[in-house]
Write a structure and sequence with these properties.
The protein is of the alpha/beta class. It has a single domain, classed as Alpha-Beta Barrel (TIM Barrel), CATH 3.20.20.140. The protein has 13 helices and nine strands. It has helices at about 15-25, 40-50, 65-75, 85-90, 100-110, 120-125, 135-140, 165-175, 185-190, 200, 220-225, 245-255, 260-270, and strands at about 5, 55, 90, 95, 115-120, 145-150, 180-185, 205-210, 235. The strands form two sheets. The chain has a six-stranded parallel β-sheet with strand order 4-5-6-7-8-9. The protein has a three-stranded parallel β-sheet with strand order 1-2-3. The longest helix is centred in the first third of the chain and has 14 residues, at about 15-25. It is globular, with a radius of gyration of 17 Å. The termini are close together.
Amino acid sequence: MVIDFHSHSFIPDAVAARAIGAMARNVEGVIAPIGDGTLGNQLDQMEHDGVDMAVMLPIATKPTQHDVILRNALAIREGRCDARSAEMLVPFMSVHPFDPELKKHIEEISSLGFHGVKVHPYYQNFSLEDPAVRPMFEILSANGLVVVSHCGYDVGYPGRYDACGPKEIASLLKSVPDLVFVAAHLGGCLGFAPHATDEIVDLGCYADTSALMRDWMRDEEMRLCRSWPAERLLFGTDFPWNVCSEAIGWVKSVRSERDWDAVFSGNARRLLKIGN
């Protein structure tokens, strides 16, 4: 079984076209999407490449977006988009740190049975180490929600290294030690000195493998994918920015076969409370 713990698509299709177009323009000349951002395209790609399930990660770029993200997540989960979506996608929610109804919305997310949320410090204009956002993470932790955060450099924000690098991750995890935290993009290593992420490995967080294809053969990405504790490494593609089959092949080329079950599905099943 293969579970992609880091993917993106948008509904409805008209929104997908606008969203993926804007994102592609923002990173033009650096990377290009391999999909069109629609649910159907993602599901087709998953079926073609042997991915059984994918966690879908939205971003609340404004405090007012809670309701629309919730509506879309429920539509996917309840099969109102199509049957494949309900079977193959696990929608996460997103929270915005400056939402005036943050506690209420986090409790709603938990009560409705969602497993986690996605945050993106650059898109949402905050730092993981800012004491002002610590209560958000404390409430998320108290409600048993997994937090997936963009970590490290983002090609859409050239020159920014100040919000979600290893130092900021470590500060957050030391402040909220019970938080179930997934440091996306191999712990946010891109743009930082070799071994900068070593401090966070011992703090118990997860990392996902969603490095961009152009970065797969960098020494630090290779080292981290090879050495991160198998019980805390999650397969992720960042679809539609990577081809799923190629991402699977890269991870298999780096990790020992004895780790494949944990990395490709076992750890994800545990976090998503999916039976064997």
